[in-house]
Write a structure and sequence with these properties.
- The protein has three helices and five strands.
- The protein has one domain.
- It has a five-stranded mixed beta sheet with strand order 1-2-3-4-5.
- By secondary structure, it is α+β, with helices and mostly antiparallel strands.
Length: 135
């Protein structure tokens, strides 16, 4: 019979607890996303970070119900004369045909930093083309 000893040191117990939580969350919380899609998202975010007016640019992932899988995203915000807008762009595709992105629920605004010039850079440098930009 194996007996476990009670760990007396509170700091050591805390460290062990943190290690177990980190180990569990890294296994459970990481969706399986194609590396090319992730690279396209990181490329797009890198370009967007250099654009005046684009704020809080981050990459992440979201569950795409139509495809029943996780897809990488680029999120950013911008402000126009009346309000602040938050935008999420979902990226999909593959290395053979390139990558496409969807922007949804973006109110018409002259302050959106994603202009045709930015979209052209995304196409040229990241192989990402607009599939749908819905307003």
């Amino acid at each position: 019979m194996v007996r476990c000893r009670f760990v007396q040191d509170k700091e050591l117990r805390l460290r062990l607890a943190l290690l177990s939580v980190i180990g569990i969350s890294s296994c459970v919380g990481t969706p399986n996303i194609a590396s090319g899609e992730t690279q396209a998202a990181e490329c797009m975010a890198g370009i967007l970070k250099a654009v005046p007016g684009a704020q809080n640019v981050t990459t992440g992932f979201t569950y795409e119900t139509r495809e029943s899988r996780y897809v990488p995203t680029v999120k950013y915000s911008f402000a126009d004369s009346s309000t602040r807008h938050a935008v999420e762009i979902a990226i999909g595709g593959n290395e053979a045909v390139g990558y496409g992105y969807f922007q949804r629920d973006i109110p018409p605004s002259d302050g959106n930093p994603v202009t045709a010039d930015v979209q052209n850079k995304w196409f040229a440098q990241c192989r990402a083309d607009a599939l749908a930009v819905t307003m």
